[in-house]
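Example 9 (inverse folding). The structure is encoded as follows.
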């Protein structure tokens, strides 16, 4: 992540991310868009996970479409995430594997950062230890 002026950074909550991406409530979408244009915003991986969960379980959006929506959003000017390469890898895993988003994020940390992951989940262990 690039060096940022800490005085002009803000965090986005999941509901703001969802309103921005879906544009289903235009006035809220416009407010979030204006906010994003006015400063750098950080989207934490917890928020990414929650948004993916809502898109999948509430809106019933197919996994590949969710991954594309989130990747496009995370590529928006002024939108930053912690561990951006890892989050992109997690979204790719989520779209391609039968893993929930949290497991996808953990596997992506293993693949991108080399961090060990301890789990009893058999599907995850197949990916972590092929």
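The amino acid assigned to each position is listed next.
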């Amino acid at each position: 992540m690039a060096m940022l002026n800490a005085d002009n950074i803000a965090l986005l909550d999941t509901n703001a991310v969802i309103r921005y991406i879906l544009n289903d409530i235009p006035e809220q979408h416009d407010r979030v868009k204006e906010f994003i244009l006015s400063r750098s915003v950080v989207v934490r991986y917890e928020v990414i996970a929650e948004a993916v969960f809502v898109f999948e379980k509430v809106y019933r959006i197919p996994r590949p479409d969710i991954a594309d929506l989130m990747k496009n959003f995370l590529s928006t000017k002024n939108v930053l995430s912690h561990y951006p390469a890892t989050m992109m890898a997690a979204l790719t895993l989520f779209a391609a594997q039968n893993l929930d988003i949290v497991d996808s994020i953990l596997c992506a940390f293993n693949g991108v950062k080399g961090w060990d992951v301890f789990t009893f989940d058999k599907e995850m262990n197949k990916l972590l230890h092929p």
